[in-house]
Specification:
With 334 residues, this protein is mainly α. The chain is built from 13 helices and 2 strands, in the order ααααβααααααααβα. It has a two-stranded antiparallel ribbon with strand order 1-2. Helix 5 runs antiparallel to helix 6.
């Protein structure tokens, strides 16, 4: 495709994908509210819908055997999410607060999936095994969020660990309740969600194809196209939503969006298609990005737990770490 056509088509597809993803998120949240989902599960649905651009771009790249682009989109998006959602959110809002139990509950899943992702990208685990390990953990977390509170209460009477678990779930639920207020779905909301999903998928596929064409023509490494360009563009809806919630003091919602988005990116956007078509041979650059993802996740969660949130200096540190990551990746591709 000629550059004169590919460049404006990429910009147009990006604008359509980003704009439509907002409609998709809002309508799916309304449908979830009508189905009686808890606030925590509504947050998971919203994260999945907002992740549609990066997940679609990653799957498209993997299915067309551009494994480095596909891995780059997912892993680069996850590093970007930590910087733009949590780091930038803390800087703009002057700080965001989290409950320590919530940080531990969501953080353990985030660290587990990031670690599984790294060893899978290294080639230590086949994608199918990585998908099983990460998928079971994610499904268990979702089941916990949707569990009947009476069951957790009965378990808590006899088991100390269940008492802690119930307290963490309840705290997360209460924090999210004030941030997620969704009207019940009307007759046209489900149809609007389906149409929005089709548009987002089509636009994201176009974004990935045109970006790959431009990268090949300008001899830009695939990991840069995926890990920096597509990763940042497709993650913008989450970043804007997180900054908005941070300014309103909704720390739990910001943490939920960041960590749940990253978990869904890995499981649905990388390991699931990777189990079908493979991830290719281990790439040193992909391993580098995966290691940054795990390391920055661990550092962010450690600071968040110690401070009971993220203050402005901590946010600046996370954003600076992303800047170092970008420079390091660019230097490594020279």
């Amino acid at each position: 495709m000629p550059v004169m056509a590919a460049a404006p088509l990429f910009v147009l597809a990006a604008c359509i994908s980003l704009a439509t993803s907002w409609l998709l998120v809002s309508r799916l949240e309304r449908v979830g509210e009508r189905l009686g989902l808890s606030e925590a599960l509504l947050g998971m649905v919203a994260a999945l819908a907002a992740d549609a651009p990066e997940i679609t771009s990653a799957i498209t790249a993997l299915l067309t055997h551009q494994q480095r682009v596909g891995a780059g989109v997912v892993l680069g998006s996850n590093v970007f999410n930590l910087a733009a959602l949590l780091g930038l959110g803390a800087m703009v809002a002057g700080g965001i607060r989290f409950r320590r139990r919530v940080v531990i509950l969501a953080g353990l899943l985030a660290l587990w999936i990031a670690a599984v992702c790294l060893v899978t990208v290294l080639g230590v685990l086949p994608p199918g095994a990585g998908l099983a390990l990460a998928g079971v953990a994610l499904l268990g977390y979702v089941a916990l969020l949707g569990a009947d509170r009476r069951v957790l209460r009965r378990l808590a009477v006899h088991h100390g660990w269940a008492h802690w678990l119930r307290a963490a779930v309840v705290e997360e639920e209460r924090d999210l309740e004030s941030a997620i207020r969704v009207p019940r779905a009307g007759r046209g909301d489900l149809l609007a969600a389906v149409i929005s999903l089709v548009v987002v998928v089509a636009a994201s596929v176009t974004m990935e194809r045109t970006a790959s064409d431009l990268g090949a023509r300008w001899r830009v490494p695939e990991i840069v196209i995926g890990g920096l360009v597509l990763a940042a563009v497709t993650s913008l809806p989450n970043a804007v939503a997180a900054v908005y919630l941070a300014l309103r003091g909704r720390g739990a919602a910001v943490l939920s969006i960041a960590l749940n988005s990253n978990a869904l990116n890995v499981v649905v956007g990388l390991l699931l298609p990777g189990a079908v078509v493979g991830l290719g041979g281990a790439s040193s650059l992909a391993v580098l990005v995966a290691a940054w993802y795990l390391g920055l996740t661990a550092v962010t969660l450690a600071i968040a737990h110690r401070q009971g949130g993220l203050r402005r200096p901590a946010g600046a540190l996370i954003v600076a770490a992303y800047g170092v990551f970008v420079v390091w990746l660019l230097i490594a591709t020279l």
